[in-house]
Amino acid sequence: MKVFSGTANEPLARAICEYIGIELGKCSIRPFPDGETFVKIEENVRGEDVFVVQPTSPPTNHHLMELFIMMDALRRSSASRITAVVPFYGYARQDRKDQPRVPITAKLVANLLIAAGANRILTMDLHAQQIQGFFDIPVDHLYAAPVMYEYLRKKNLPDLVVVSPDVGGLKMAYAYSQTLESGLAIVAKRRKNASEVESMAVIGEVRDKNVLLVDDLTETAGTLVTAAALLKRKKARKITACVSHAILNDVGVSRLRKSAIDELITTDTVLRPVISGVNITTLPVAGLLGEAIKRIHSNSSVTSLFEFKGGRTS
Hints:
Layout: E1 2-5, H1 10-20, E2 27-31, E3 37-41, E4 49-53, H2 60-76, E5 81-86, H3 105-116, E6 120-124, E7 139-142, H4 145-155, E8 160-164, H5 170-180, E9 183-191, E10 197-203, E11 210-218, H6 222-233, E12 239-246, H7 250-258, E13 263-267, E14 280-283, H8 286-297, E15 307-308, E16 311-312
Parallel strand pairs: 1-4, 4-5, 5-6, 6-7, 8-9, 8-11, 11-12, 12-13, 13-14
Antiparallel strand pairs: 2-3, 9-10, 15-16
Helix pairs in contact: 1-8
């Protein structure tokens, strides 16, 4: 088995290798003067079971192209199996035709990954579960929830209510509320455009409660910040947000600094610079991904990684 990393999140790849007990594979990745990417695998991979760690975080297109080129290089070097380890799967929000004459880009990316040489996909907290069906190869879909649960249990927040900031996240919020043995509420929202949302109503009781907002990803933080403001108006006490992938551009950081959110809990699936003025707790997922890689390599069951407290994480 060999693990290689693109440039999107090399610290995560090194942490995964440390968990497994192997060295990170050697490869050279550099740009040509015209912006094209050059990749050279610097060690023998003939007949090896190879894993390529590369979340498709911004700049998304650059990191995707890098992943395609790496897998093509490995395929042409006679690797026996190539697993694309994509902790954050970009373009996941473009998973359906919700307007005339628009693409289904999540499906296009799935096709491109297979064309580039992927035999298997390992990913975490997809924005939409049905994206697994866009692939005609095996997909191992992990959840960050066990890592989040462990941290939240230690915090032991009293009078807790888990809140989904929109209808789409209700299933995830329900799983959290069952495991944390807390109440459940939902914020009804209307999206104005790609970066702005309007929260309209809260369904459930949040008055004088500690609130845990759960979502799979945030970039501009519009959904979370608007929901938190509405919950504060409904007399909620402490507001904690729990997000698997915090991509966070400048707009998102600015909004979080002024928001009613007391703490943002996220994971290290994407590489992020240090952000001042926002209380962010980043939890490591290298152990979860490393364990999944070990089990895929040994053809063992990955299902038990979904189990938590006798139930399922989703």
